[in-house]
Write a structure and sequence with these properties.
With 108 residues, this protein is α+β, with helices and mostly antiparallel strands. The protein is built from 3 helices and 4 strands; from the N terminus they run αβααβββ.
């Protein structure tokens, strides 16, 4: 993949994850049932532990961490603006709807 395109996707993902804007945020039922959801969301916003093992394409589109005995996953998916199919170009925010899903690992 083109380095400039990858960097653009990474920047869009990081911005969306940090401020929960320019994306739709989906929180699974299991996560909603945990008592300290605001702290979990804060850890997603401040996540920075990207490595080649968990971010092989450099897009910052997935992360995981432990929280009070639970493994939490978060991930981005890219759709067209109607949310009916995959985006043709995740680096183009004019044709891409980002969906950030935050979940317990066992819900994946």
């Amino acid at each position: 993949m083109d380095h400039c395109r990858t960097q653009c996707i990474q920047d869009l993902n990081d911005t969306a994850r940090r401020n929960f804007e320019d994306c739709r945020v989906m929180i699974t039922k299991g996560l909603q049932e945990l008592p300290d959801l605001p702290s979990i969301l804060d850890q997603v916003r401040h996540y920075h532990d990207f490595t080649p093992a968990n971010d092989p394409f450099g897009e910052h589109d997935f992360g995981s961490f432990r929280f009070n005995g639970h493994t939490i996953f978060w991930k981005f998916d890219y759709f067209d603006l109607d949310l009916t199919m995959s985006s043709l170009d995740p680096s183009d925010p004019t044709i891409t709807a980002r969906v950030l899903t935050i979940m317990l690992a066992e819900e994946y």
